[in-house]
């Protein structure tokens, strides 16, 4: 069983925000849940703030937007202003601490999960798969999703790119594993998970 | 050899038609009727009119016909041809509809090589609304909206313009209502190109508008001669592109 | 857009349009709005003889597209499915159906007995007669196709009026408040043209207040108030957010205030 998960992913156009959300929605659907995914962006193809609203639930979802998010994924500091209104005290913030400094988000008194996705992607894989590390982490945090389906969906989604760049398949799978692994280790030890209580 | 008074495909009950005395449309429509008879296509043709005087031809023939909006005749024709690819679709319009408001439809239909026959009657004015200047109005021409003569814009050479974007198979020509053998030849080629080559055809026809030109018979003929010196008749071939 | 719609009305040509409403005026946003309701239900010259469907979720969006083609060919009228940026861009699950065969009432072009289809008339009397005849036909078709979703309005003290995506948010709010025992109801027109005025009047029979929620500034309100003309002792609250989405919590909050 899964409670309704309301997930807002935010960053800049070109970071692959919509890719994360689209794949997450497909995986959740294939894992037996009802889902909605809705992009929200301006007219610019690159550089503007890009938001993706995703919901995963056991029950039928009829409305694609929500007031407060259970999880906010923040991947660019300039998107912070746009997502602040979707926080309540229970919202968990998942962010890339190799893109966003912790002091930049100190005003948010929420549970924060720091994933150095950009750093790991650059150091250990290829830079472009940073969003798949985030996807893995997000899937780990949501829980109850089928990993096997994800591999299938990734292969379908990146079909054309895999033909041109066969090694991308390997990096994507590693990135997914890495993201899920980070969340697992955090959940186990709970020391990366900074819980900052409200005063 | 004597020709019958009216082509067989003409709808006799709708005659006399609503065109002004001396109007070139009647000449074009009558000859188009003869060509349709000759090709034996009256039972598989669709005739689409635009807005402007061309719309008065909506019940000219005993052939399926549709009136459309100003400049939209080519688009309506495109839709009909898509739905009925085996039928012959003839799009009939004036210079106002074709070269002003509907130019983008016309150019893109040519560019896509839509298998249509587009017939554009050019009398250099917006005739139905009272003879205002059109894109085809020549330098110095007096019109309702340019009473001192039109000295702002040069004329538009439609067939040459369309030639720029049209497919190699397209048939593009300009005829005139005072040269019937040539007119009939072009009408026939324009329709045959649709039937045999599944290609786009465009025929501009220089025509009389004595009502709005405010000309008597002789001056009407004279003005058409003037127009023919500016708007050269003939088939637009690749060399002149 | 009004150009082909009115031509289809004049010549009774089957015509289907899906409109994903964007924020306006002008280029506005590419995100969302309900601001094209006026254009869809009233736009163009003439008497706006077209059918307009307002889907509230993805399933309806899919179902109504099939319905739109069926109606367009059955009745030879323009049918508009009036969606919005949210619906157009949302990915979610939909149950697909095996579509039935759509059949035209009668063939429009007839190659055995040619027809001359017109939209131009020379005399005002002639056109007026034709419009009156067409309107009669349109009214008969309208009474056959008109649809609304009415939820718990029988004993409702407050009835919320909403359509399309906002209708979904309103439905969630009403269902939640009903569980708490608050007497609220929903009237959601599914066909915005024709608008179910009789059903709307019945829906507010026991209501003291209505709430009109829309992502435009009174375009929907005008249709609602027109349909309720003659109903007495009804106070009206408005939740108008032009070019912005309305979520169920906002409607819920407003309804709580109203029912106090």
Write up what this structure looks like.
The complex is a heterotrimer of chains A (199), B (241) and C (260). Chain A is α/β, with parallel strands linked by helices and 199 residues long. In chain A, helix 1 packs parallel to helix 4, helix 1 crosses helix 5 and helix 4 packs across helix 7. The longest helix of chain A is centred in the C-terminal third of the chain and has 23 residues. By secondary structure, chain B is of the alpha/beta class. In chain B, the strands form 2 sheets. Chain B has a 7-stranded mixed sheet, with helices on both faces. A two-stranded antiparallel ribbon of chain B has the order 5-6. The relative contact order of chain B is 0.15. At the A-C interface, helix 1 and strand 2 of A face helix 4, strand 4, helix 6 and helix 9 of C.
Could you describe the largest sheet of chain C, including whether it forms a barrel? 5 strands, mixed
The level of helicity of chain C is 40-55%
Unreliable stretches covering 5 or more consecutive residues of chain C: none
Number of helices, where a helix is a run of at least 4 consecutive DSSP H or I residues of chain C:
9
Kindly state the number of beta strands of chain C: 11
User: How helix-rich are the residues of chain A, as a percent range?
Assistant: 25-40%
Mean pLDDT of chain C: 95
Distance between the termini of chain A: 33 Å
Given helix and strand content, the structural type of chain C is alpha/beta
Report a brief summary of the structure:
The complex is a heterotrimer of chains A (199), B (241) and C (260). With 199 residues, chain A is an alpha/beta fold.
Keyword list:
heterotrimer, A: 199 residues, alpha/beta, six-stranded mixed beta sheet, 7 helices, 40% helix, globular, disordered C terminus, C: 260 residues, four-stranded mixed beta sheet
What's the structural blueprint in terms of helices and strands?
The complex is a heterotrimer of chains A (199), B (241) and C (260).
Chain A: E1 5-12, H1 17-30, E2 34-41, E3 49-57, E4 71-74, H2 80-83, E5 92-95, E6 111-114, H3 117-124, H4 130-142, H5 147-157, H6 159-164, H7 167-189
Parallel strand pairs in A: 1-4, 4-5, 5-6
Antiparallel strand pairs in A: 1-3, 2-3
Chain B: H1 24-39, E1 45-49, E2 64-67, H2 73-83, E3 88-94, H3 95-101, H4 103-111, E4 117-122, E5 125-126, E6 132-133, H5 158-165, E7 171-176, H6 180-197, E8 201-206, H7 210-213, H8 217-230, E9 234-235
Parallel strand pairs in B: 1-2, 1-3, 3-4, 4-8, 7-8
Antiparallel strand pairs in B: 5-6, 7-9
Helix pairs in contact in B: 1-6, 3-4, 4-5
Chain C: H1 2-11, E1 15-21, H2 37-42, E2 51-53, H3 58-75, E3 78-84, H4 85-89, E4 91-92, E5 116-117, H5 124-145, E6 148-151, E7 158-161, H6 164-179, E8 184-189, E9 191-193, H7 197-203, E10 209-214, H8 219-227, E11 235-240, H9 248-259
Parallel strand pairs in C: 1-3, 2-3, 7-8, 7-10, 10-11
Antiparallel strand pairs in C: 2-9, 6-8
Helix pairs in contact in C: 6-9
